């Protein structure tokens, strides 16, 4: 299996919301237990450290983690990643959650890490206010109505996220 960058790629969902179920239903992806393959990427529903360790022993070039709100419970896994980025919402009802996340990352127990933050924020002004309050830079992602059909002009920015 190879992703768009020619790497053997797996995605492990450790989030509690089970967003991958949408993909199964919408795209009719082939299932095999708690895993399926779609667009040359292997998707797995995870149960924490055990599944992460298992994937690391399967010769994947790239393992993408969807931690959702479970990022705190999976702290060690997140900290072991080579590339760390957060997709966050700056909508009024989600902003506090993003602020709490930034505060935790700037804590010694998290090693004062500075992952890259990305948003689909609808308001450039709100993004700037958040950056001023938090002291971090939040990168704007292009709006992509269908993430499985990416326009050529959107691809370089998205690929820059994964190194």
Which properties best describe this structure?
single chain, 163 residues, alpha/beta, Rossmann fold, five-stranded mixed beta sheet, globular
Concise account of the structure shown:
The protein is an alpha/beta fold.
Task: Write up what this structure looks like.
Helices cover 31% and strands 20% of the residues. The chain is α/β, with parallel strands linked by helices and 163 residues long. It folds into two domains: 1-81, no CATH class; 83-163, Rossmann fold, CATH 3.40.50. Strands 2-3-4-1-5 form a five-stranded mixed beta sheet, sandwiched between helices. Helix 5 (124-134) links the parallel strand 7 and strand 8 (138-140). The chain is globular, with a radius of gyration of 16 Å. The chain starts with 8 loop residues before the first strand and ends with a helix. The mean pLDDT is 76.
Structural class: alpha/beta
Annotation field: number of helices:
6
C-alpha termini separation? 19 Å
**Which strand-content bin applies to the residues?**
15-25%
Give the quaternary arrangement of the chains.
single chain
Spatially, the strands of the biggest sheet line up as 2-3-4-1-5
Taking all Cα atoms into account, the compactness measure Rg is 16 Å
| C-alpha geometry | globular
- Please estimate the helix content: 25-40%
Order of helices and strands: EHEEEHEHEHEHEH
How many beta strands in the DSSP annotation? Answer: 8
């Amino acid at each position: 299996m190879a992703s768009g960058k020619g790497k053997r790629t797996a995605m492990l969902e450790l989030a509690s919301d089970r967003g991958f179920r949408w993909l199964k239903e919408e795209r009719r992806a082939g299932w095999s237990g708690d895993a399926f393959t779609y667009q040359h990427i292997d998707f797995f529903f995870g149960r924490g450290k055990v599944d992460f360790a298992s994937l690391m022993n399967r010769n994947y070039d790239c393992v993408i983690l969807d931690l959702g709100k479970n990022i705190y419970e999976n702290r060690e896994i997140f900290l072991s990643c080579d590339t760390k980025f957060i997709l966050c919402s700056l909508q009024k009802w989600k902003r506090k959650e993003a602020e709490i996340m930034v505060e935790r990352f700037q804590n010694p127990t998290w090693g004062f890490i500075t992952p890259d933050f990305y948003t689909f924020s609808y308001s450039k002004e709100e993004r700037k206010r958040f950056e001023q309050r938090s002291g971090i830079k939040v990168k704007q992602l292009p709006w992509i109505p269908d993430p499985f059909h990416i326009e050529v002009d959107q691809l370089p920015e998205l690929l820059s996220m994964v190194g």
